[in-house]
Amino acid sequence: MLGSLSVGMISGSGSANAVVVGTITIPLMKRYGLPGTFAAAIETAASMGGLLMPPLMGVGAFLMSEFLGVPYWDVVKRGFALAFVYYGSLALAVYLLCVRLLPRDAVAAPKVPVYGRIKTSIFFLAVIFLIVLMGWVGMSELRAALYAAIFMFVLLLVAFLYFKHVLKDPEIAKESLFANVRVTVETHADMTSYLTLLLATLGIMIGLFTITGFINRMGAMLLDLGAWNIIAMILMAYIFGWLVGAGLPPTATYIVGAVIIVGPLRELGVNPWVAHFFVFLLSVWGGLSPPTSLTAAVSARIAEASFMRTMWEALKICLPITLMTFAIFTRSDIVVNPGWPQVFATALVLISTCGITFAMFGRLLERPGGDIMLRAMMALFAFVTMFHPDNRVAAATGAVLLAALIVGILRHRRIAPPKGGLESQPAS
Which end of the chain is more exposed for a tag (fewer CB within 10 A), N or C? Predict the structure, then answer.
């Protein structure tokens, strides 16, 4: 999960994230006793979460900055809150399932070469350097990215030359500087060509939408629904975004959604930040939703597991992102007001998503009847905490839910079933 989070900081693709990290993590998870379906599902969930992770946010941060006409850093500050909620809920889901599936024996930590640790440290230093340049120095996005790339390249070059020619490290004896630089150039060219073709194709699509009047008709339809009931309009926009996301990658889905959905929402008085983040979260979920989740397909192939089972388990684990998509309308401070209001709203959303996660995957009692009833009550408190418009009511139910979560996690660790595949577990 941490590996996918890290790669997600610089990757705009969930499937690429799954390829880079999944080839390492999925075999490791299977080696330690996790079923292939679960290993693929958790990697799918973690890779899709990388699209929420600043500073890149799957290219969405740059696009949102342009759409709203605000500094890039204003978008990133809000993105951190959503990523925190997502990965916090995901971590709890992984923990609860691993307690049920993993053996009780201690797992030996693999040894990581010193050179590998140095490269990982340089990667994180470059990300921190990029954030400092844009957040505190106030440098433009392109200039900051250039300086961060030069900073990381110089550090990696120094580390490579030192370990290869001074320490004579056997781990990199067969590596060459030319080969590493060539891979870097090829990767950059591949990503740049992909984005260029994607934006060119989207330009044609948006032009066709405009000429045929589709945008006007779709916007009028959404406004008519909003005049009747704004909830119906939001649900209609969600369905539309899901259909678009079934055929387009998240970046493309966000651009199309921002053109078609944001306008009607703003005309009904929805805050621009809420409207754009609604479309952004919808576009990320669209990359996971059936039947065309490329990330799930890649992870399932690596794990040699069923694609449909992998996608189904990943959808359950990724439920928080589905709920966050709607929670920003009631807990709007999470994307509107950075500062203490945002911290308060983030805490409420995190507690509620964790409560729903526990209701799905946790165990409170050994007897199924009583256990299901208690978990249903936790889910009810979670929905009140997330969607009740009164902050005082939400805070009160959130406090009760937090206490129940602490007790529930302790109980789950004691009474969770023994190791077994997801197929042998009772339905969640």
Answer: C
Euclidean distance between CA atoms 11 and 23, whole angstroms? 16
CB neighbourhood size of 414 (10 A): 9
**What is the pLDDT at residue 203?**
66
Query: What's the pLDDT at 172?
Result: 80
More confident residue, 23 or 188: 23
Write the secondary structure of the chain as one string of H (helix), E (strand) and C (coil): CHHHHHHHCCCCCHHHHHHHHHHHHHHHHHHCCCCHHHHHHHHHHHHHHHHHCCCCCCCHHHHHHHHHCCCHHHHHHHHHHHHHHHHHHHHHHHHHHHHHHCCCCCCCCCCCCHHHHHHHHHHHHHHHHHHHHHHHHCCCHHHHHHHHHHHHHHHHHHHHHHHHHHCCCHHHCCCCHHHHHHHHHHHHHHHHHHHHHHHHHHHHHHHHHHHHCHHHHHHHHHHHHHHHCHHHHHHHHHHHHHHHHCCCCHHHHHHHHHHHCHHHHHHCCCCHHHHHHHHHHHHHHHCCCCCCCHHHHHHHHHHCCCHHHHHHHHHHHCHHHHHHHHHHHHCCHHHHCCCHHHHHHHHHHHHHHHHHHHHHHCCCCCCHHHHHHHHHHHHHHHHHHHHCCCHHHHHHHHHHHHHHHHHHHHHHHHHCCCCCCHHHCCCC
Instruction: Decide: pTM greater than 0.90.
Output: no
